[in-house]
Structure formats: C-alpha cells, structure tokens
C-alpha cells in the first residue's frame, strides 16, 4: 500500500469481522435446534437474498424478514426463536482491536460503517459500546436506507464525514464492499485478520 498519513482525512471501519467477530454458523445451529433439523438443512438454504438486503436497508422489519426466512428455510419456528438465533451471530471483539482503534483515532477521525438491521443494531451498540467510544460516528445501513456495496452508501458516508471519497481510507472484510468503495475513489484495504490493520497502521505512522 503506497499511502501516507497526508493522503487521509478519515478512516472508516466495517464492523463484522473487522471490529467484531461474527459467525453465521452459530445462527444456523440455533435455528436448527429449534426446528429439530440438521444444521446443514439451514446452511444450504440460507442466502443473502433480496429480503436480507431489504432488511438491512430498513425497508422491512424483523417479523417480515423472519416470515420470509420461514418460507425459504422451510422451517416452522417462532419469531422469538428466529430472533434468539439471529443474535447468536456475535462472537466477541477482534483480538487487540481496542488498542488498534485507539491508535488509529490518535492519527485520524475514525468512523464505522455497518450493513446491519434493527435487531442486530440493538445488540452490538450496547454490547460493544466501549469499543465504539473512539468512533466519531457509526453509520448503519438500516438507518441511512443504503447498504454496501451500493455507490450511494459510500457517497452518503463521505458527505456526512465532510471529506472527499479520495481522502478516506476504508476497511472491510468483503471484497465486494471493497470494490464498491474503490468505485467512488476511496483508498481501501481488505481485512482478513487484525494483522492487516496493524500493517496499515505501521505504514501510516511512518
């Protein structure tokens, strides 16, 4: 990465698997227990389909999303059981992430941008409130009505930050989301582990 601190006005972090570890298998396992079916039945049928995307934009609520899941997964479990499994997705903070975000915050204004829904938002905003303290603002797809990798989502974030996209460094674990950010001119780094964040930090500190 050929980048210096002079090139950057703000840094934007994805939430899932960048700041907080998430694991959909935990969700599937819980739903399978309630449905009394093999977890493979759930995993093979589950997809990030248009209902999932509408849920993340805040266009449908949890009950509507769970109704769609009940049909697509061919299981008959209650909304409460769906919600219980849905919120099992959060594993915990990524290793050493608080120290890293504090170091980034000492250099730049830092922000988070998550594709998330109202149910998940209620959990992680409370559970990880201390982790999120150094962040100037957290952008959430279900609040802004736009989700990554839609171009308008990145432009919305850049405008709210008050920086040109070309002056923003964006971290995400999804290649699709990285490519979306690149399309509007953001500097990007795909994050596969905390070591990737550490490596970029070392570059920017020099």
Account of the 3D structure:
- With 206 residues, this protein is α/β, with parallel strands linked by helices.
- The chain folds into two domains: 5-19 and 94-205, Rossmann fold; 24-90, DNA polymerase, domain 1 (Orthogonal Bundle).
- The chain has helices at residues 24-35, 39-45, 50-56, 62-72, 79-86, 97-107, 118-127, 141-144, 151-161, 175-183, 194-205, and strands at residues 10-13, 20-22, 90-93, 110-114, 137-140, 168-172, 187-190.
Which labels suit this protein?
single chain; 5-stranded parallel β-sheet; DNA polymerase, domain 1; Rossmann fold; alpha/beta; elongated; 7 strands; 11 helices; 206 residues
Fraction in helix: 40-55%
Nearest-integer average pLDDT: 97
Look at the structure and give the CATH class of the largest domain: Alpha Beta
Largest sheet: 5 strands, parallel
Low-pLDDT runs of 5+ residues are: none
Count helical runs. 11
> What name is given to the CATH topology of the largest domain?
Rossmann fold
Order of helices and strands: EEHHHHHEHEHEHHEHEH
User: Order of strands across the biggest sheet?
Assistant: 5-4-1-6-7
Give the CATH superfamily of the largest domain.
HAD superfamily/HAD-like
Strand elements, count: 7
The rounded Rg comes to 18 Å
CATH architecture descriptor text of the largest domain: 3-Layer(aba) Sandwich
**How much strand?**
5-15%
Shape: elongated
Distance between the termini: 13 Å
Integer tally of domains: 2
């Amino acid at each position: 990465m050929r980048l210096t601190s002079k090139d950057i006005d703000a840094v934007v972090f994805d939430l899932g698997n960048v700041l907080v570890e998430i694991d959909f298998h935990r969700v599937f396992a819980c739903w399978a227990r309630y449905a009394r079916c093999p977890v493979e039945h759930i995993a093979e049928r589950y997809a990030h389909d248009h209902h999932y995307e509408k849920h993340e934009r805040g266009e449908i609520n949890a009950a509507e999303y769970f109704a769609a899941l009940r049909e697509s997964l061919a299981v008959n479990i209650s909304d409460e059981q769906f919600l219980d499994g849905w919120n099992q997705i959060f594993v915990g903070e990524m290793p050493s992430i608080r120290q890293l975000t504090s170091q980034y915050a000492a250099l730049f204004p830092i922000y988070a941008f998550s594709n998330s829904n109202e149910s998940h938002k209620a959990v992680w905003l409370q559970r990880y409130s201390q982790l999120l303290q150094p962040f100037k603002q957290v952008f959430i797809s279900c609040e802004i009505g736009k989700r990554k990798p839609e171009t308008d989502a990145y432009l919305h974030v850049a405008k709210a930050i008050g920086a040109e996209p070309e002056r923003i460094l964006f971290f995400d674990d999804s290649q699709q989301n990285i490519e979306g950010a690149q399309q509007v001119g953001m500097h990007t780094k795909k994050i596969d582990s905390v070591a990737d964040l550490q490596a970029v930090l070392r570059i920017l500190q020099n």
